Amino acid sequence: MASAHPPAPVLCGLGTWLPPHVVTNDDLSRELDTSDEWIRSRTGIGRRHVADPGTATSDLAVEAGRRALKSAGLDAADTVVVATTTPDRPCPATAPLVASELGLGTVPAFDVGAVCTGFLYALATAAGFLAAGSAGTVLVIGADTYSSILDPADRSTRAIFGDGAGAVVLRAGDPDEPGALGRVELGSDGRGCDLITVPSGGSRDPIRAETADRADPFFRMEGKKVFRNAVERMAESSQTAAERLGWGVGDVDLLVAHQANIRIMHAVADRLCLPRSRCHVHLDRVGNTAAASIPLALADAAATGRLQPGDRIVTTAFGGGLTWGAAALRWPDVSPA
Ligand code: ACO
User: Fold this and answer.
1) Which of 62, 120, 123, 245: CA 20 to 30 A from 79?
2) 218 lies in which domain range?
3) 154 and 259 in one domain?
4) Neighbouring C-beta atoms of residue 45, cutoff 10 Å
């Protein structure tokens, strides 16, 4: 008899990659008017990894994707989705190159752009492919090279962002098995599109010889205005994602939030009445890695024993767009590679 439910997306592999070059807060202080004390106390960040010149987002994505497939015990996937806002080029998408570099042949491959919420949007997209029967396995990669869009003179963004990639493999499975994702809660509000933006270089303000003087090709963020919005949206969507699986928020063993700022993560936990000790903190070592942040934090939690098979986790993000989202799952018996 046919199952009453469409296949559920089940997490069965996890891989990460960080470029080897590390930039500490003290390194930044030698270049910019900032300090280790300011950065740690305002953000919780201690260091970040930065890609060498010539390294592109696809290079990071391929390394993380290869490791995720290895962790899943697979040498192929049916579809590749890359979440990024720093594609190798404005055109084409980065995912087809990643799929080719991974030796996956001519599988469907495309990018999803939702800034720091991109990984959750990509998970939801992959879940749709699996539910529709369009794929049996999907490689979902979050990869960003923010160092390529930061203004070298802007201390407020240079202190925060780092480069990296993280990937998961989702397979079609049963909604009751460990690793099965509940419905991914997503939202957006384009009225806030100016709060996190790269102003120039798109169709609104193309960079041309005659406008080059006033063009701004760098990433800009109005951090203070984003802060409160991020807390509210992440708390709301986390609560809904947990409740959809029949959990109370207090049942959540670990909150794996987008690693934007430790003060934001703690404020989300406070709003949910969850002890702050249940927030996983990874940004002290990697900063905000945008679309890579959640899979990198999941891998760190699993590798360090913070996450055990069977644990109930909620993962949540907020980012440019504005966009936000959350997803809940029971942690499967998966070792990150
Ligand atoms: N070192 C020293 N001083 C600094 C630095 C720095 N690295 N950065 C900023 N300052 C200064 C500012 O210039 C400002 O000085 P002024 O008062 O003389 O103008 C002062 O510190 C206060 O700046 P604020 O921006 O008000 O500092 P705040 O405490 O809000 O911290 C931060 C800034 C860390 C960005 C915070 O607002 C934040 O985390 N916001 C949310 C970010 C977020 O969640 N973004 C969404 C996800 S990211 C994405 O989608 C790509």
Assistant:
1) 245
2) 185-330
3) no
4) 25
pLDDT of residue 6: 85
Does the annotation count 116 as an active-site position? Answer: yes
Chain-centre distance for alpha carbon 249: 22
Tokens of 240: 């809904």
Q: Residue 114 pLDDT > 90, yes or no? A: yes
Residue 320 beta carbon below 6 angstroms from any ligand 1 atom: yes
Strands 185-188 and 312-319: unpaired
Q: Which two tokens stand for residue 229?
A: 């919005």
Specify whether 20 is located in the same domain as 169. yes
Q: Is the CB of 127 under 6 A from ligand 1?
A: no
Task: Summarize the confidence of residues 164-173 as an average pLDDT.
Answer: 98
Q: Is 288 known to be catalytic?
A: yes
What is the pTM assigned to this prediction? 0.96
- Which residue has its alpha carbon closest to ligand 1 atom 38? 223
Nearest CA to ligand 1 atom 8: 156
The answer to whether residues 325 and 293 touch, using CB atoms and an 8 Å cutoff, is no
The average pLDDT across 84-108 equals 98
Residue 30 is part of a domain; what is its CATH number?
Answer: 3.40.47.10
Q: What is the pLDDT of residues 268-301, one digit of tens each?
A: 999 999 999 999 999 999 999 999 999 999 999 9
Alpha-carbon Rg of the chain, whole angstroms? 19
Question: Ligand 1 atom closest to Cα of 320?
Answer: 50
